[in-house]
Amino acid sequence: MGAYRDENKNGTWYCKFSYHNWQGKKITKKKRGFKTKKEALAWENSFLEQQAGNIEMSFEDFFEVYKRDLKNKLREHTWMTKENIVKTKIMPYFKNLSLNEIENSTIMAWHNELLSIRDEKGRGYSMTYLRTIHAQLSSILNHACKYYNLRSNPCRAVGTIGEKEAGEMLFWTQEEYEQFIEAVKDKPKSFYAFEILYWCGLRTGELLALTPRKFDFERNTIRVDESLQRLKGKNVITAPKTKKSVRTVMMPEFIAEGIKDYLNSFYKIGDDDLIFDFTKSFLHHEMDRGCRISGVKRIRVHDLRHSHVSLLIEQGFSAIAIADRVGHESIDITFRYAHLFPTKQLEMVNSLESLRPDTAKDKWKELLKDDE
Q: For residue 98, which phi and psi values (nearest 5 degrees)?
């Protein structure tokens, strides 16, 4: 270790040292521009701790290790969301603590602080958002346990806060949707975007990534293999959310005919040009407008996907068939959407009751009387 005055740089300081990287190779490192010797030595110490994965390093330093290890393995949008949560909701509380100073009591105190935060209208964070914040910290500490010898993850011991699904999932019945779509038919791009979302179950990012090449009008299908995200003011095309999301979706005939008319309305459009040249915020505004005019309850744009699934459930399709269409795992369909139709439980019971004749019921009554 060493820090030296840099006479050629206005008397600032630099550090110069050697270390072995993760491949065992010896590397010489030099860093200039420090105002004091103390700052130069502190930077050197922080750098070496990151390289060594020392659990005594600060949470702030370890996050840089975590970022180096994982950022390139995640979708850009996913990483940006994760990083924003860490920097705004986690880092202010933990940044100066070393990893081995984060204890169960530390996590509980942080939970209580999150629960006490209120905005100008007196509203706290939603239960789902609280759970997401906790999960981000737990993920970082899990990484430290798995790869850098942290003894345990206190987030596991304390448990999470919030809820996985906060409140009842919103959706429209077909009747509500028909009222809504009538109110926005004056704008073709809005009309056809909502039609695809409701009748085909695409995610918003999948919709915005659609080009003429994605449509096969001989088979009436849409090829879903990309998603569009708006990152730092630019459109970024990525792979869909999961491997299961890559799929071919069949369109009802009326959707296929409508999209053909919509594409023909363009003066000039290439096979790889986006057919919906707007942002997610435009869809949110159009949802507001349509609900205001039609009088139907306001749901999120993403809830059109829930509405599509609920429509298929009502039509009697299996979880496996629905999952293949919307790019989910069948187990997710089973657990996420079963509550949309509580009457299904009654239908099941009635069906089961029909399997046992009245004579069997009478026999049970006789047995019970004998027991008395």
A: -75, 160
